[in-house]
Amino acid sequence: MKIIGLEEHFVTADVLAAWRTLDPRLQDVALQHSDGGEVGARLADLTDARIAAMDETGMDVQVLSLTAPGVQSLEPDLAVALQTASNDLLADTIRRRPDRFQGFATLATPEPAAAARELERAVTKLGLNGAMLFGRTRDRNLDHPDNWPIFEAASALRAPLYIHPQSPAPAVREAIYGGLGEAIDPALATFGLGWHYETGVQILRMVLAGVFDRFPDLQLITGHWGEVVLFYLDRIDNMAGPAKLARPVSDYFRRHVSITPSGLWSERYMRWALEVLGPDRILFSGDYPYRFTPQVEARQFLLDANLTERDRAAVANGNWERLVADIRRS
């Protein structure tokens, strides 16, 4: 059984340096998890040590992506330069080990037209399989019309966009997640809950703003079993009327959104996802190196899951390979 993981991260020294120069209010609070230590070393490695870690957990292929928050908080010129450098590095890495690596492009959303052009280059010239986005670009939400050139390019290319968590805006962190203490505040705003609400709301905003009506071939992927939204789709369907949508909100998710576990090996969450979206909308991811736990093998989770053999193969690799086969390279 070939296992392909879609949320497997790297970082470069230049990107880390750019993050460090940002005004502290623009810095992602998760930077501390990526800058230094064992996780930082694993993020920087794109060679044999990473492959050895993959072997430990039973992951055959990693779809590599620049870790959060990408280049979306940076000034436009710097973001554009770093998107090019990151994607060229990614393409070189894949050329050396095409049997073990694939890639999601980095996009400079502060300059949407340049990001759209880069997505086309990444897919048609570099052989990457879509892109990873991180919700807001500073104060600009993902559904903002400024971002629509990116969605237009992705729809035309049929290149999937993986929507990954980033930290909530500073004002939201202070109002909703703050006041509990230095140890609790950043945890609650990120992996405790904030990341997941933030990401789910960004995708929901895209639906309510009519992005998928405008770009019917656009396909999204998101992690953590759907970033909370799947658990409330029955109620969220009431938003279709006020938003004047052509279909129920849940229908947009079933047609346009695929999900992954992000290393959350939960049979219970998987059962819910299967019931809501069906087996053809579930892909795989380990969230390397943040959820790297070799004692809990990715392969073993799939082998133990209550799935038919057909659905097990679809989740492990088939659903992703179907999306990739649909990409228009020319």
Would you kindly provide a written description of the structure presented here, covering whatever features stand out?
With 330 residues, the chain is α/β, with parallel strands linked by helices. It has one domain (4-325): Metal-dependent hydrolases (TIM Barrel, Alpha-Beta Barrel), CATH 3.20.20. The protein is built from 18 helices and 8 strands. The strands form 2 sheets. A 5-stranded parallel β-sheet has the order 4-5-6-7-8. A 3-stranded parallel β-sheet has the order 1-2-3. Strand 2, helix 5 and strand 3 form a beta-alpha-beta unit. Helix 6 (112-124) runs parallel beside helix 7. The chain is globular, with a radius of gyration of 18 Å. The two termini are 31 Å apart. The mean pLDDT is 94.
Question: What is the fold's blueprint, element by element?
Answer:
Layout: E1 4-10, H1 13-20, H2 31-34, H3 37-44, H4 48-57, E2 61-66, H5 76-96, E3 101-103, E4 105-106, H6 112-124, E5 131-133, H7 148-157, E6 161-163, H8 170-177, H9 184-192, H10 194-208, H11 211-214, E7 220-222, H12 224-227, H13 233-236, H14 240-243, H15 249-256, E8 257-259, H16 267-277, H17 298-304, H18 309-325
Parallel strand pairs: 1-2, 2-3, 4-5, 5-6, 6-7, 7-8
In short:
50% of the residues lie in helices and 9% in strands. It has 330 residues and is an alpha/beta fold.
Structural class by secondary-structure content: alpha/beta
Our estimate of the beta-strand percent is: 5-15%
CATH homologous superfamily caption: Metal-dependent hydrolases
- Contiguous helical run count: 18
The strand order across the widest sheet is 4-5-6-7-8
CATH C-level class is Alpha Beta
Helix and strand sequence: EHHHHEHEEHEHEHHHHEHHHHEHHH
